[in-house]
Each structure stands twice: as structure tokens, then as C-alpha cells.
């Protein structure tokens, strides 16, 4: 059984090759019959290759690549890549972190706990359910994007105040002090994405 945040099992080679060939053919709007005829294989065989119903020879694959105008190396290029650059975090499984000024009723869940020093952005799910809480202001390099999923609040950026309701988004320069000014309607769930750009390189 897979862990919730791991990818599905890797495609078998036949499935991977079939998908690649079919995508390339469809991208060029070529009919299955035409590709099969030019490649010198039967239409039924090409259909089976595309649907991973047969393991075909390298000779057939080479001829299909010629017809589709793609090098054999491209056909296999991504199959053996180690690991995925994608990270799936299931609901309520983000890593809980503590940030300066966080008190009861105010939690951050980090949604992209990537390993290593290189970090170009961070994504948090911020939950606030204590309407009387006071918040410090934050500042950091780069740009921040907020999307309010639930609740209502007034958000401060510099000397400007923005009233946000569920579904609203706010994008701003992170260098300018910012933070929640007033929690109008709790509970609040706020998606916060900080893009550090070149800072994380």
C-alpha cells in the first residue's frame, strides 16, 4: 500500500512508450493508419503498442520515431529519471511549524517541505480561530500570495488595509511589513505562498 504522499507505482516501460508515441502522434494530428503505413507496421500493431498490449521491437520503435520526427533518446528520456519533482501533500498532513508570534489558535502547516538548502518558495496553510489574538507583522524577501479559503479578515500591508472575504486573493511585496490586522470572522483558513525568486538559488 502506498503512503498517502507518494506517487502511484511507476508505469511499466510498455505503458510509458505507448503513452509517449500516442501523445506525439496526436500532437501532430496524425491518424493511426497513416503513421502505421509510413512506418511499415500494421495498424493493429500500432494500436497495441499505443495501448501497451504488446512489447515491440526496437526496430519498430525506431521506425515510429522516424515517422513522428522524434529521436529515440527523447522517447526514453524521462522513463529512468530518479524521483519526482512533484510533491503531493494530502489534506491535513502538512508539516506543522512554529513561527515568531504564533500563539494558541494560530497554526501554520508547511505544504512544501522540500529537502536541501535550495528553496525558491514556501507554501503554508494558515489557520486562525482566536478572534481576539494580536499578530506581529512579518517581512521577508520576494513576493507573497494569499488566498483566503474560509472566514473574513482585514490584512495589513505597510499602511494599507485590505478586507478579505473567502475566495479573495492578495499579492504583495514581502519586504514591506505585513500581517493580519483584524480577524472579522473565524475560523480562518488562509493559503500563503512566498516566492523568494533568486533569493533561494
Please tell me about this protein's structure:
By secondary structure, this protein is of the alpha+beta class. The protein has 2 domains: 13-76, 434 Repressor (Amino-terminal Domain) (Orthogonal Bundle); 95-200, Jelly Rolls, CATH 2.60.120.10. It has 5 helices and 7 strands; from the N terminus they run H-H-H-H-H-E-E-E-E-E-E-E. Strands 1, 2, 3, 4, 5, 6 and 7 form a 7-stranded antiparallel sheet that branches. It is elongated. The chain starts with 12 loop residues before the first helix and ends in a 6-residue tail after the last strand. The model is unreliable at 1-6 (pLDDT under 50). Pfam families: Cupin_2 (PF07883), HTH_3 (PF01381). Residues 21-75 form the HTH cro/C1-type domain. Keywords: DNA-binding. One of its GO terms (molecular function) is DNA-binding transcription factor activity.
Amino acid at each position: 500500500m502506498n503512503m498517502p504522499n507518494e506517487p502511484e507505482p511507476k508505469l511499466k516501460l510498455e505503458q510509458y512508450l505507448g503513452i509517449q508515441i500516442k501523445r506525439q502522434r496526436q500532437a501532430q494530428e496524425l491518424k493511426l493508419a497513416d503513421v502505421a503505413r509510413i512506418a511499415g507496421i500494421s495498424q493493429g500493431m500500432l494500436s497495441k503498442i499505443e495501448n501497451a498490449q504488446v512489447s515491440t521491437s526496437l526496430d519498430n520503435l525506431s521506425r515510429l520515431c522516424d515517422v513522428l520526427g522524434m529521436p529515440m533518446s527523447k522517447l526514453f528520456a524521462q522513463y529512468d529519471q530518479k524521483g519526482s519533482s512533484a510533491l503531493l501533500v494530502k489534506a491535513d498532513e502538512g508539516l506543522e511549524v512554529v513561527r515568531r508570534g504564533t500563539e494558541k489558535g494560530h497554526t501554520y502547516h508547511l505544504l512544501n517541505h522540500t529537502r536541501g538548502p535550495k528553496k525558491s518558495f514556501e507554501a503554508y496553510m494558515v489557520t486562525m480561530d482566536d478572534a481576539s489574538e494580536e499578530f506581529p507583522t512579518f517581512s521577508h524577501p520576494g513576493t507573497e500570495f494569499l488566498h483566503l479559503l474560509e472566514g473574513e479578515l482585514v490584512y495589513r500591508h505597510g499602511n494599507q488595509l485590505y478586507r478579505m472575504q473567502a475566495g479573495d486573493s492578495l499579492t504583495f511585496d514581502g519586504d514591506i511589513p505585513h500581517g493580519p490586522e483584524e480577524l472579522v470572522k473565524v475560523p480562518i483558513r488562509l493559503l500563503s505562498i512566498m516566492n523568494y525568486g533568486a533569493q533561494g538559488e
